[in-house]
Design brief:
By secondary structure, the protein is α+β, with helices and mostly antiparallel strands. The protein contains six helices and six strands; from the N terminus they run E-H-E-H-H-E-E-H-H-H-E-E. The strands form two sheets. It has a four-stranded mixed sheet with strand order 2-1-3-4. A two-stranded antiparallel ribbon has the order 5-6. It starts with 20 loop residues before the first strand and ends in a 13-residue tail after the last strand.
């Protein structure tokens, strides 16, 4: 895909331009974002989705006009003609691109649905913020500073994902089970 100038928040006349592809900029260091990325690639798409880590060299090359710092703070989706969607509008746009979720996207594009979409985005942002602080809610709703939801699983750390069974860990350098315990 060639670099396209970004038009802020869909831009004037964006509704009149057909969308044939969307680039979803996601935070590759966020476990929730990585989970959603994995979920998106398994969905049947009516509009092609490309998932690119926000703030990456590829994102900067493709979209030099974007504020790449803000793409790490709020989900950003860029249409193939330069339309830019952020926050709840970005989520509704992504759902619209998915075969099984287009009807939901239409419901979320109503005034009542938009409030629900905004609430979901705010809840995700609050969860991400808690991860950056290192806090986690205890059963009573208080923050205890511990882990909740885990971090991003990385292949180089020994993690692999099999859709049939989920995440698996094989400690690096443990060929044949000869790892020391500890």
């Amino acid at each position: 895909m060639s670099a396209v100038p970004a038009v802020a928040d869909g831009g004037a006349g964006a509704a009149r331009v057909p969308v044939r592809g969307l680039t979803v900029l996601y935070d590759a260091e966020c476990s929730l974002c990585a989970f959603v990325r994995d979920w998106l690639v398994r969905q049947r798409q009516l509009v092609r989705l490309e998932l690119v880590p926000a703030g990456s060299e590829e994102a900067r090359r493709r979209f030099p006009g974007l504020d790449h710092r803000s793409t790490l703070e709020e989900i950003t989706v860029v249409g193939d003609c330069g339309q830019v969607y952020r926050g709840a509008a970005a989520w509704v746009t992504v759902l619209w691109a998915l075969r099984e979720h287009r009807p939901l996207a239409h419901r979320l594009s109503t005034p009542a649905g938009a409030r629900l979409a905004r609430g979901a985005v705010l809840a995700a942002a609050k969860w991400r913020e808690s991860r950056q602080r290192g806090g986690a809610p205890r059963d009573g709703g208080q923050w205890d500073g511990g882990q909740w939801g885990g971090g991003v699983y990385r292949r180089e750390d020994g993690w692999s994902y099999d859709p049939r069974v989920g995440w698996m860990y094989d400690r690096p350098g443990c060929a044949g089970g000869s790892c020391p315990t500890g």
